[in-house]
Every structure is written in structure tokens, then in C-alpha cells.
Amino acid sequence: MVTKTPEIKDRKPRADAQRNRDRILEVAKQEFTRVGANASLEEIAKKAGVGPGTLYRHFPTREDLLVAVYRSEVEKLAAAERTLADSKSPVEALRAWLLLFVDAVETKHIIAPVLNTLVGDPKKVFETSYAKIHEALRALVKCAIKSGDIRKDLDPIDLLRAIVGVANVSASPDWQQSARRLVDILIAGARPLE
Predict the structure, then answer these.
(1) What span, in angstroms and rounded, lies between the C-alpha atoms of 174 and 191?
(2) What is the CATH T-level fold of the domain 67-194, as seen in this structure?
């Protein structure tokens, strides 16, 4: 009997390789936020405590690293829905998640221009992330409606549009502060009518 050896792609990465990858992604996000999408990859590797070869083994191109940072941020945002729902009241979980969304929008602002120049189809990256974000927000809004903290006619998409609108309209460097204030205004405005 012949046993098939699992494909290399099917194997989980070693714990140290996964830690290196996670460190690279965290440092890359910080550097892309601080410097922009053209941040030095060598500097990212150095700050992550790995050699350039390790960085390039995980992320052969700058675009691969940018896509991975973006996807990682979306995954964290989607996972935060469950953590926040388990640890906070429904309306506070919604508020906290929207504040995390503001941070994710900042990451997309840095990465999107580069992704839009790729030869491939960057829309696939954004479409996949949009579905995950929408599902997380929908679940939080549903819980807040069920608890009576939020009015029944609230459409989760309206919350996203408002925050993304502030990010797109405001060219000022402090748009995040505006968006954070907007989160509180949106939550107050979404309370049930008396």
C-alpha cells in the first residue's frame, strides 16, 4: 500500500516560522503606517529580528507583503467581533469594533494604491475582505438590536459608509480623530427612538 505524503502547502508552518511571519507582519504594518507603502523591506526585516532571506522566504515581493498585511488586519478585525461580543455589552462591542474598523481603514489607505497597480486583480483581495468585515459588523448590529440598545432599522452598511466617507473626504492627517468622534455620534444616533 502506498501512502501519500501531504503536500508541503498542506502542512502547518513550524512554530518558529509562524512567529517570524507574525512578527514580520506586525512590523510591516507599523512601518507602512509610519513611512508608507515604500518602507524599506530590509528595515522591516531588521526590526522584526529576522534576516532579509527570512522575510523574502515568507513574502517574495513587496506586493506579497502588502497583501499579507492587509489580509492579516482584516482577519484580526473579523476575529475581534467574537472576542468583543463575548466580553462587552452589545452596544459597547459594536462601538469597540467600529473603532478597530477606523484603524483598518487607515491600513487600507496605505496599501490600496499599491494593490491597485498590481498586474493581477486587486479587487479579489478587497471583495474577500469586504465579505468578512460585513459579516462581523452584521453580527454585532444584530446583537445590539436584539438587546434593545440599537434601533431595529439600522443597516450595518450605513455605519461603514459613514466611517469610510470621513476617511475619503478628509485629506487631513487627523481624519482618524474625526472618524473616532463619528463612531460615538453614530452610536448615539442609532439608539432606539423614545
Answers:
(1) 27
(2) Tetracycline Repressor; domain 2 (1.10.357)
* pLDDT per residue as tens digits for the range 36-67: 888 999 999 999 999 999 999 999 999 899 88
Separation of alpha carbons 28 and 35, rounded Å: 10
Distances (CA, A) of 153 to 142, 156, 159, 160, 191: 11, 10, 12, 15, 10
Instruction: Count CB-CB contacts under 10 A for residue 154.
Output: 19
**Which residue ranges does the chain devote to CATH 1.10.357.10?**
67-194
- Measured in whole angstroms, the distance separating CA 54 from the mean position of its chain's CA atoms is 24
Nearest to 27 by CA among 51, 45, 53: 45
Q: What is the pLDDT of residue 32?
A: 87
Per the rule left: phi > 0, alpha: psi between -120 and 50, beta: everything else, 29 is: alpha
8 Å CB contact between 141 and 156? yes
CA dist., res. 27 & res. 24, Å (int)? 5
